[in-house]
Design brief:
This protein is of the alpha+beta class. The chain contains 24 helices and 37 strands. Helix 2 (51-69) packs across helix 17 and helix 19 (694-715) packs parallel to helix 21 (741-758).
Length: 857
């Protein structure tokens, strides 16, 4: 093969310009064509794309290009999730306005994404920080408010003391703020909420009914978060007082094991019973020093305050249950009150151990060795005992028996509840969408801002010289007048949670320049729901659940006519890389490591020895990142795309390696040289098919089989398998002798197919080959090549490939393929190469139509 040089930079720039000039990927509604809405989760504009972005957007680009070539009307847009505390904090560190910092980052990141050659309709680009974007979500909020889906109340919230803002429960990770890592505190604040709980049952049911193209793990996570449960809600009267309260329990079967009552620290009855009691104020202060999430409560030490009061057990005459105020009970969960069953609930067990309360077993497992109440509670299956009329029942029957009994006594009733809580959307920060309401000073009335006064824009002249929310201490912005009476009024200074913006952006893309509405109903109903959504599994609960709720709320407010935002979801794995530390224990960037004279790794500059650590997710904190811009500058966008698409199944983690990117680059150059070397001697496209020898016939079969296989693998999101099939086909083409008429005719057919099949993966090289062959228009606009069914199936066999006797892969080849083809195809397989792992190949045993065994040492 010749040494012709492929000018990657020049070629990629040429085709990127061509796509822009020809508006290749701009689309409008076309009812005559089936639509395909492909969407990757929008990025936060940090200023640089990372390798996770490269993988995510390469995956969505493969789908978009493939669907376009398959005849679909494809929408593949891009935007920026541009509001939030990170931008505010970054701007504060740099002493610039968050808007200045954000728009600068957007411009830089857009350039990097353009360099990737993505098939994006940039005319639909949005930035959530732009007033022309968030004006429409302000209108949506007011529509929610008017429909009773938005409300304001005082609530115990998760308070991040570092970021000085409220966090949703989903944003508390292991008792700490998801961004700051600071221990979360409890705090009482007036907050705005969206009534996601109104949709709990629909959100739950639609998981099975309408989300069959979502990963099972995400569906399960959403079901668990919604957390439907049926139980008993019953009343207890406080002895020697006129007070009473209600508890809710999902385990009424354990009621005979109850040994205490627990109330939330801010439960009205708790406040009344403990009023003026020594130590209660200090106890409440202790309770406030922890988050409100389940994880925070689980991890916190269980503490309580004895009220000195009790209630009567409903079934055990003379038994009194002492009433404690407990830090692990929240007013916003259930009724804010429980009866504690220490033998069968670990939190109750820990509490009972601390305060020497009874631990009475009422559930008995089949195997007595399964329970040891001296160490922990028992939460498993069994029969009920020590429980009077429940003795001998299984758990479910006992639950119903207790509910029936309590109902007959008029003390309570069966009730269905959900773990899901209403979404608190208030955040105490500047760089967010302002909540569009004012409070009249004369009476405190909450007044919505009229539609014709939207958007309520953020002030530009903002100062960050004081802690807390800059909008609170702005000298003029919050002072306004009541739109109803003209009286003095104060603006709401909270801004929306940034998940508000990302809950509806997918619909804004369908009509991105509509000034009157967030989107036109006809347009959104044509394009949406999104057919294929792609992003990280870390958004399984937060973003995806909120977006589902938002869609249903917008439907009920007349914005759209469907129920779910994303028909199909794919969650890709992370990009990982080895991390490194120097002898001072500091993380070192891979680019800063050089080889010393003794072969050891040395940190350039400091001269300190460097040791490899774990292979883990790329992160700035571990300094194990690779800059995509540098990779694309050195190897080209096609090589970067090819590597992240071919080296690992998309749903698994991908380890970044220099050998991997170099291998992709070499393959691209090899294909280019192969086409260039043979193009001039191939017959023209009008030449009729001549008689074919066996090798040419097998190659033709391989071409048509690969057309089918690659399409199938893309549909199934097996992008790595699709690339492997393309490599197998190119290897088969390289075995042909183009001077032979039959071989040359098949090779030309193969080159056309090759350009089309690689187009979703390496689009620049594909266009270059297509153009070199003198074919019309762009390969991006060509129709996906169809397989000739008469050439498929019967003449192909599946062959196992072993490495040292263990099956590592299978390959499909035409029947009768000779040993050389078997060996070359087997060695070109990625799984086989990983198994060989650089070892010396001692011999290859190839049995045609049966097996290949590679012996390495």
């Amino acid at each position: 093969m010749s040494e012709i040089r492929y000018n990657i930079k020049e070629t990629e720039a040429k085709w990127q310009k061509t796509w822009v000039t020809n508006n290749t990927f701009e689309v409008t509604e076309d009812p005559s064509k089936e639509k395909a809405y492909v969407l990757a989760m929008l990025p936060y504009p940090s200023g640089r794309i990372h390798m996770g972005h490269v993988r995510n957007y390469s995956l969505s680009d493969v789908v978009a290009r493939y669907k376009k070539m398959s005849g679909y009307n494809v929408l593949n847009p891009m935007g920026w999730d541009a509001l939030g505390l990170p931008a505010e904090n970054a701007a504060l560190e740099r002493n610039i306005h968050p808007g200045t910092w954000t728009y600068k980052n957007i411009a830089e990141m857009k350039t990097q994404l353009l360099d990737m050659g993505l098939a994006i309709d940039w005319t639909r680009e949005v930035a959530t920080c732009h007033p022309e974007y968030y004006r429409h979500e302000q209108k949506m909020f007011l529509d929610f408010y008017n429909k009773g889906l938005a409300y304001r109340k005082e609530s115990t919230v998760n308070w991040d003391p570092v970021e000085n803002t409220v966090l949703a429960n989903e944003q508390v990770v292991d008792g700490k703020g998801w961004r700051s890592g600071a221990p979360v505190e409890r705090k009482k604040l007036n907050q705005w909420f969206l009534k996601i709980t109104d949709y709990a049952e629909e959100l739950l049911n639609d998981i099975d009914d309408k989300l069959d193209r979502w990963p099972d793990k995400v569906r399960t996570m959403q079901k668990n978060w919604i957390g439907k449960s049926t139980g008993l809600q019953m009343r207890f009267d406080v002895n020697d007082t006129s007070d009473h309260f209600e508890i809710f329990t999902t385990r009424p079967d354990t009621i005979f094991g109850a040994s205490f009552i627990g109330l939330a620290p801010d439960h009205p009855v708790a406040l009344k019973l403990c009023e003026g009691k020594d130590g209660f104020a200090e106890f409440k202060g202790q309770c406030a020093a922890g988050g409100t999430s389940e994880v925070a409560i689980e991890q916190a030490e269980k503490i309580g305050f004895d009220t000195g009061y009790s209630v009567n057990h409903p079934f055990i005459e003379g038994k009194k249950l002492p009433i404690y105020v407990a830090n692990f009970i929240l007013m916003d969960y259930g009724t804010g009150a429980i009866y504690g069953v220490p033998a069968h609930d670990q939190r109750d067990y820990d509490f009972a151990k601390k305060y020497n309360l009874d631990i009475d077993q009422v559930v008995f497992p089949t195997n007595p060795d399964d329970i040891d109440l001296s160490k922990e509670s028992y939460n498993g299956p069994g029969k009920i005992g020590n429980s009077d009329f429940l003795n001998g029942m299984d758990i479910e029957d006992a639950k119903q028996a207790v509910i029936d009994k309590i109902e007959s006594m008029n003390l309570g009733e069966a009730k269905t509840t959900y773990r899901l809580r209403d979404w608190g959307v208030s955040r105490q920060r500047y760089w967010g969408c302002p909540v569009p309401v004012v409070y009249r000073e004369s009476d405190g009335a909450c007044i919505p801002v009229p539609d014709d006064q939207l958007p309520v824009e953020l002030p530009d002249d903002v100062s960050f010289d004081k802690p807390g929310n800059p909008l609170d201490h702005h000298p003029t912005w919050k002072y306004t007048t009541c739109p109803e009476t003209g009286e003095p009024a104060i603006r709401e200074t909270d801004t929306f949670d940034t998940f508000f913006e990302s809950s509806w952006y997918q619909f804004r893309y369908t009509d991105a320049r509509n000034e009157a509405r967030g989107f036109d109903a006809d347009k959104v109903n044509y394009w949406a729901p999104v057919d294929q959504y792609i992003g990280g599994v870390e958004h399984a609960v937060l973003h995806l659940l909120y977006a589902r709720f938002f869609t249903k709320a917008l439907r009920d407010c007349g914005y759209l006519n469907f129920d779910e935002p994303f028909a199909g979801l794919f969650t890709q794995g992370m990009v990982t890389h080895t991390s490194y530390k120097n002898t001072d224990g500091k993380w070192v960037y891979p680019a800063d490591i050089i080889k010393g004279d003794d072969g050891k790794m040395i940190e350039e500059g400091s001269g300190l020895e460097v040791k490899a650590q774990r292979n883990e997710k790329m992160s700035k904190s571990k300094r194990n990142t690779i800059d995509p811009a540098e990779i694309m500058d050195a190897y080209g966008a096609d090589a970067a795309r090819l590597f992240v698409l071919s080296d690992s199944p998309p749903d698994r983690d991908l380890e970044w390696t220099e050998s991997g990117i170099e291998g992709a680059w070499k393959y691209i150059n090899k294909l280019y040289r192969f086409v260039m070397d043979n193009l001039s001697i191939l017959p023209n496209s009008e030449t009729a098919q001549p008689d074919l020898n066996d090798k040419a016939q097998r190659a033709l079969i391989k071409i048509h089989q690969t057309r089918l296989d690659v399409a199938t693998h893309i549909d199934e999101f097996h992008m790595n398998k699709a690339v492997a099939k393309i490599r197998e086909m190119s290897n088969a083409l390289m075995e042909l002798q183009p001077e032979n008429a039959g071989d040359g005719w098949v090779m030309r057919e193969g080159f056309e197919t090759l350009a089309q099949l690689i187009s979703p993966f390496t689009p620049h090289l594909a266009e270059e080959i297509w153009s070199m062959m003198g074919l019309q228009d762009l390969v991006a606009n060509s129709a996906w090549p169809k397989a000739n069914q008469s050439l498929l199936g019967a003449d192909e066999v599946t062959i196992a490939v072993q490495v040292n006797g263990k099956v590592r892969a299978t390959i499909n080849l035409p029947k009768g393929s000779d040993k050389k083809i078997l060996e070359d195809t087997a060695l070109a397989n990625d799984d086989v190469q990983r198994a060989i792992d650089g070892k010396d190949i001692r011999k290859i045993i190839a049995v045609p139509d049966r097996i290949v065994n590679v012996v390495v040492a």
